[in-house]
Write a structure and sequence with these properties.
By secondary structure, this protein is an alpha/beta fold. 50% of the residues lie in helices and 7% in strands. Residues 202-297 form the Zer-1-like leucine-rich repeats region domain.
Length: 723
């Protein structure tokens, strides 16, 4: 019957960052606030209804309807979205068999498909790029290479192959990259890749960009074979490298075409190669980008000297070093720095190192300290944090630090400057972190505190059913007082955003939650402690019992009525009293429970409350919280549910409840709700209560007051009544 509106004082429209002061933030805000492209929206609908729209083959896999064809750009995007949403499986990948699709870019990042599905579904296409980053071990690197090499066209024309963090079975032998003669870009980072494989790859005639980070390579001498064509070399954390510094620099000096070089280190491998590189003369004449993050002994003076001798440099990586702090790095025009000296450097590092967990941790820690007391919305930074969370879902340190950063970036009014779509993505990632790390209390606190944000709870799209189920579980499984306060605040708002069917699905969780909420209320009442936890618990009980007879029964069976009578006897605050009345009005709507409310204690307290001047404002609630203030207005869609109660003279308590409820709603907006009451035929019922000889005196007096208070609004309908 009731639902929540959100009468915010701040404008609901996004106020973007200043385009002059924060150009990147302004762009992100514009992009995130813009509607999805029509193609994307259509593909999302298709993906959500694949099994309905796509026929099933005899083997159980799906195929496109016979007359469907996809243009190449749409086919590429469709595959990418399937992968991104985790919907690409052997069953759905079969859609790409045949010639109804025309793929050029095969993005299968982090999917789980078999080698047979990969070969049958993708390797007959004229692929130019394949991104198999982090694919499940069911599809190994040898399988991928074998499949790609099964097509002579792909052998000659495949330009880009990304295999970061893919799997290589033991005893696989030499990886046969040599047949892919068209390759220009190859990423074999974080896989089992040896010096012999590097020697094979270096023979590729078109190779220009190579990433061999965190591999088993012991020597890079084979790179001399491609010294006249290699433009980009990334060899972060080469832990097995067995060459001396002079041998390493002898190779690098020969790579005169290099424009990008990454020799960054790792905390587990304190490397000083970057320091000695800066001392070299006549090296890297065409360098534009140099990454020496994580290197030891790096100083501002050495880096400045190298950059002055290489005026074409546009980027330098200095994260986890002692450099980047001098004015040179902020005044040098056209120079980007990934470091930790300021917010600009941290943002660059978050963008550059999104796939490196060791650096992501460092970036997020720096960001947390930098944004602890920030007062300006920074959507571009929040977007980078979200990317880090998405790329490292099982890294506890990344998720913990990221959750703290999200809290800094969205607390109080900062969320109002964030695009809804971005907040929706972040909310989903927070719930994912909650599920992945159920035992890490501080991470749970960070995530839950972010989720108490009023804008997130009221305006941001996310799976509210799953969220409610998870948070209810937290309520009755954990007794930490701070966490309980956050949990009940979230439950109190989410409860009325669920459909009746969803509430019924939660029955077991709701029963346990009602029991726990009543225990909290009982404890707070015994302590005479009127705090946020009590207020949220009362609100949660009110909302959970709304239009839920089963929950109302559970409330009564757990001695809820006695607890609430004690609340009324202990607290005189109208905010608390209104919540008690609201819940009891839910109980009275359940016919078999109505008689249980007809006790002397209940009637005494209700009579006092209904004649209290403070209750005039009972329907507007203001809730304090440690991070935000939530407000909500209770309103009604229809008065018809009250009519049987208003016409029931055998149960005056029910009449009184119904009359009180209708009166309070009408008092909020008389011009709207009195009109609704009149149009639905409620006025004759009020007149009948006023005139009927069997009417209880209290009920009759309230009906008289009702008609008198709203006389001017009922003029149109009085001629149709006996009043």
């Amino acid at each position: 019957m009731v639902y929540f509106l959100h009468p915010s004082q701040a404008p609901r429209n996004l106020v973007p960052p200043d385009a002059q002061r924060d150009a990147q933030g302004w762009r992100v805000a514009q992009e995130e606030a813009s509607p999805y492209a029509l193609v994307s929206s259509c593909l999302n609908v298709l993906i959500a209804n694949l099994e309905k729209l796509c026929p099933e083959r005899p083997d159980g896999t799906l195929c496109l309807p016979e007359h469907w064809t996809f243009p190449q750009e749409v086919a590429d995007q469709f595959l990418e979205m399937l992968s991104w949403q985790g919907k690409l499986t052997d069953k759905t990948a079969s859609i790409f068999q045949g010639n109804q699709m025309n793929l050029k870019l095969a993005n299968i990042q982090r999917v789980k498909i078999s080698a047979a599905a990969f070969i049958n579904c993708f390797c007959h296409h004229k692929l130019l790029e394949v991104d198999a980053t982090g694919v499940d071990s069911e599809l190994s690197v040898p399988d991928i290479i074998h499949g790609l090499c099964s097509s002579s066209w792909i052998q000659q024309n495949l330009r880009c192959l990304l295999l970061d963090s893919a799997s290589v079975p033991l005893n696989s032998g030499l990886l046969a990259f040599g047949q892919l003669v068209g390759l220009r870009t190859l990423n074999v980072s974080n896989i089992c890749f040896h010096s012999e494989d590097l020697a094979d790859v270096s023979q590729l005639p078109s190779l220009e960009n190579l990433d061999i980070s965190n591999t088993q390579i012991t020597t890079i001498s084979a790179l001399l074979t491609c010294k006249d064509r290699l433009k980009s070399l990334t060899m972060h954390y080469l832990k097995c490298l067995a060459m001396t510094k002079s041998q390493i620099f002898a190779v690098i000096k020969e790579l005169k075409c290099l424009r990008h070089l990454d020799i960054s280190g790792h905390k587990q491998l304190c490397s000083d190669i970057g320091f000695y590189l800066l001392q070299q003369k006549d090296i890297l004449p065409n360098i534009v980008s140099l990454d020496i993050s994580g290197s030891t002994y790096i100083t501002d003076r050495d880096v400045e000297h190298f950059i002055r001798n290489h005026p074409s440099i546009q980027f330098v990586g200095l994260l986890a070093t002692d450099a980047g702090y001098s004015n040179f790095f902020t005044t040098k025009r056209g120079l980007k720095v990934a470091g930790g000296a300021n917010l600009s450097q941290i943002a660059e590092a978050l963008s550059r190192y999104r796939n490196r967990s060791c650096y992501m941790k460092e970036c997020l820690y720096k960001l947390f300290t930098e944004t602890f007391s920030v007062h300006v919305s920074m959507p571009a930074i929040l977007k980078l944090v979200a990317i880090g969370m998405r790329n490292h879902p099982l890294d506890l340190t990344v998720q913990f630090t990221a959750s703290a950063c999200v809290l800094n970036l969205t607390h109080q009014g900062l969320a109002r400057g964030m695009p809804v779509r971005l907040l929706s993505e972040v909310t989903g990632l927070l719930f994912k972190a909650l599920r992945n790390f159920p035992s890490y209390l501080q991470l749970q606190k960070n995530c839950l505190l972010s989720l108490t944000n009023s804008r997130i709870l009221m305006e941001v799209p996310f799976d509210r059913f799953s969220a409610t189920r998870f948070v209810l579980g937290w309520l009755y499984r954990h007794e930490n007082p701070k966490v309980q306060t956050m949990v009940v605040s979230i439950v109190s708002t989410l409860a009325l955003q669920l459909s009746r069917e969803q509430v019924s699905e939660l029955h077991e969780d709701l029963f346990l939650a009602v029991k726990e909420l009543l225990a909290i209320v009982k404890r707070k009442t015994a302590e005479n402690l009127e705090d946020a936890t009590l207020l949220f618990s009362l609100k949660a009980l009110w909302n959970l019992t709304d239009e839920s007879p089963a929950t109302c029964k559970q409330f009564m069976e757990n001695q809820g009525l006695a607890v609430f009578i004690q609340v009324l006897e202990t607290f005189r605050d109208s905010t608390i009293q209104s919540k008690v009345l609201g819940l009891l009005s839910n109980i009275v709507e359940v016919r078999e429970l109505t008689s249980k409310l007809m006790t002397e204690d209940v009637m005494k307290h209700i009579s006092i409350l209904l004649h209290s001047k403070n209750m005039e404002h009972a329907t507007i609630q203001k809730w304090p919280s440690s991070r935000c203030k939530m407000s909500a207005l209770v309103t009604y869609r229809s008065f018809k549910a009250f009519f049987p109660l208003l016409d029931n003279f055998s149960q005056p308590v029910a009449q009184l409840w119904a009359l009180w409820a209708v009166y309070h709603v009408c008092s909020r907006n008389p011009s709207v709700y009195c009109k609704m009451l009149g149009e639905e035929g409620g006025l004759p019922l009020l007149c009948n209560i006023q005139a009927h000889h069997q009417t209880n005196p209290q009920v009759q007096q309230m009906a008289v007051s009702f008609l008198e208070d709203f006389r001017m609004y009922f003029t149109t309908y009085r001629k149709h009544t006996v009043c």
